[in-house]
Amino acid sequence: MSNSKKTWGWFFYDWACQPYNTLMVTFIIGPYFATVAAEYFITNGLDDASSRANAQYYWSLTITIVGLIVGFTAPIIGAIADNYGNRMKWIYLFSALLILGAFSSWFGLPDGSNWQWILISFGIGFVGAELAYIFSNAQLPLLGNRSETGAISGSGFGFGYVGGLVSLVIVLTLFVEQENGKTLIGFDPIFGLNSEAKEGTRFVGPFVALWFIIFSIPYFLWINDKSKPRIGASLGGGLKDLWKTVVSLRNKKSTIRYLISNMFYRDSLNGLYSFGGVYAALVLNWSIVQIGTFGIVAALAAATAIVLTEATASRFVFVKTDTAAIRVSSVADVLAKVEDTPAILVSNVAEVPALAAATATVFTEATASRLVLVRTDTALMRVSSVAEVAAKVEDTPAILVSRLADVAALAAAIAIVLTEAT
Fold first, then answer.
1. Residue 286 carries which DSSP code?
2. Which residues are CB-contacts of 390 (< 8 A; sequence separation ≥ 6)?
3. So what's the pLDDT on residue 103?
């Protein structure tokens, strides 16, 4: 199986999963629940403000429970899967949860009388979708070398966002009814769906399930993840490996900083995605069609930005450094040597066009360790300070920084050097 085919299979899994986030979480089912639940609470005697607050509370509670389940189980299940091998079995399981949860939301009635059912079915599917994402993302190293993973990952996410956009356009034009009973383009919901019973909107759940089943087929056919169990694999062994990983973090400050910053980053995104549609429905009084139309614009912008920015990620490599240096000629060489030698870096010297700019950016930290980003041509130049870069770059179109002498703690030294081909 070629890597190209595997990569496209991986792309299609993101395409298959994305509508759960786009349609179920943010733009259709989330606002649908908020609207029908608030109306149900009003019917049962609560005032308008309290009813809206209750609807938001129960939606928030469901998102919180899902987050806790995923947050606490993902590392454990991941460690067990690493021990026993065959991640595909787990992906099949989580995919089944996604399908079950999405399809079950069809039974959420527009009078809100079974609003708990909507939340339970949504929560089951959301747990499945999130855990499936984690395991499919773990397969990224199977698709290319480290210099390619940035472009593959970014393109995959961009492809997934396009899938979310396409699915949103389809449901708004063919299924989801407005107050007049017509879809966005003025048609009755197809398949004879009853607009008065909100069947067009409710059908979004089964639509997401069918979408996933159809578009995940390339993934399951083309991804050949035959990871084998370790010798002596056991549940205890998996948990022991997880504990070792957690303990080892105390010696990996950069990893800890990444995990903490990523936690806040993900939390902000989840807040936006999970509550944006509900906020628009209950606070701004937008209709589901209005929210979905806004979603089309947002998804299109997101897909374009991801493809444009992430595709260049493989052009750069970041290496945390101390005072020694490694002389390397490729990114692979950096990755091979950096674990053994605290070093300044060279970044992606392979396949850089002859007229590319050579840029060195050096940041210092309190302990005088640094992050260095260097974009190079095909040769190497060893320098001992930023000042020497400008002096030597005309003779050698590349950079290898070894040490920045006399740089005060927390100071930032930035060298930007433009070169021409010899």
1. -
2. 415, 417
3. 97
Place of tokens 């989801």: 176
Tell me how far apart the alpha carbons of residues 160 and 216 are, in angstroms, rounded to a whole number. 12
What letter would DSSP give residue 321? E
- Rounded to an integer, the average pLDDT of 84-90 is 77
Measuring CA to CA, which residue among 63, 53, 56, 10 is closest to residue 33? 56
Looking only at the bridges linking them, the beta strands covering 358-364 and 370-375 are antiparallel
Strand partners, 374: 360
Q: Provide the pLDDT for residue 128.
A: 96
Residue 159: C-alpha distances to residues 60, 129, 171 (Å): 29, 17, 19
Of 83, 35, 22, give the one whose Cα is nearest residue 279.
35
Tokens of 110: 């527009």
- Torsion sign, CA atoms 172, 176, 177, 179: negative
Dist. CA 56–CA 37, nearest whole Å: 9
Give the strand pairing for 412-417 and 358-364: antiparallel
Tens-digit pLDDT profile for residues 29-65: 999 999 999 999 999 999 999 999 999 999 999 999 9
pLDDT tens per residue, range 127-157: 999 999 888 888 887 787 777 777 888 888 8
Residue with tokens 């009814």: 177
